Amino acid sequence: MIRFFIISCFFFFLLGGNDSFSWHENYKLSWKDYKGRPNTNIDAVALTASGITFSYSGTKVDNKQIAHNVLIEARFYPEKSWFKPENVNPHILSHEQLHFDITELYARKFRKRIAETNFTNNIFSEMNKINDKVNQELDLVQNKYDIETNHSINPIMQKKWEEHIHNELKKLLKFRKNID
Fold it and tell me: Which residues contact 180 (CB under 8 A, 6 or more apart)?
């Protein structure tokens, strides 16, 4: 029992810096969520570290791969997210929130593609390919968002992006993560 406790503590401290939380429609980011050290070598005043986590388990029956427990989540990483307190305001926080919302949109697109794909015997390889494709698309859209809004400086484009992403999230409502 003591050995288990020591190993558990070791893993707790080892993983402690990697805390993250899932996107939730009823939770909006606050500056308190940003725990990383600001990068003073760049002009950006904030950075939102978010991404899609993807896991699955499965078995092989009669030489056919069967997936079980597919989990796809949009995650926020507080220790990797930062801001420069002297330069931020609620408008910039809204811009950063939309980065996290975009991550959730692509998590929903990922769930939709998994649900709509007719997999072969190579289901795990095929799911990994979908994962890679969705993450490439997510990166492109995150960059396009920053370019078109000039990192939140262009309020007209910022508003257009907010409306677009919120509409897209609504369209994919049935692919949101099930909350137990």
Answer: none
